[in-house]
Write a structure and sequence with these properties.
Length: 103
C-alpha cells in the first residue's frame, strides 16, 4: 500500500508541476495555530504551491535534512502529528484546487 501511495504522489506531483506554469498561482492556506508559517508552506516562501509539495517529498526522502521546527510543523498538513505521504497527497490535491481542507 505504501509503494502504491508513493507512485500516486509522484505521478500527481509531476502532473501538477507540468500544469503549474499555465493554471496554478499562489494559494493561501489556513494559519497553523501559533506557528509563523502557514500550514503547507513547507519551504517558508509565503506561498502554498507545488514547490511545497516537492519540498515535503524531498524531506521524506531524506534530502532536506535542515528543516526547521516551524517547517516541520507546516509540513503536517492533515494535523495528525507527523509528516507522511498522506500530507504530500493532501497538499497536492489542495494546490490543484480539489475540494479538500488542510488543518
Amino acid at each position: 500500500m505504501t509503494k502504491f501511495k508513493k507512485i500516486i504522489s509522484l505521478i500527481l506531483a509531476l502532473m501538477l508541476a507540468l500544469s503549474c506554469f499555465t493554471c496554478l498561482g499562489s494559494v493561501n492556506a489556513f494559519a497553523a495555530g501559533d506557528a509563523k508559517l502557514q500550514v503547507g508552506d513547507a519551504n517558508g516562501d509565503g506561498d502554498v504551491d507545488i514547490d511545497d509539495v516537492t519540498y515535503i517529498q524531498m524531506y521524506l526522502a531524506g534530502r532536506q535534512p535542515g528543516a526547521t521546527d516551524e517547517q516541520i510543523k507546516a509540513m503536517d498538513v492533515n494535523g495528525d502529528g507527523g509528516t507522511t505521504l498522506d500530507d504530500v497527497v493532501l497538499l497536492a490535491q489542495f494546490v490543484a484546487g480539489w475540494d479538500v481542507t488542510i488543518n
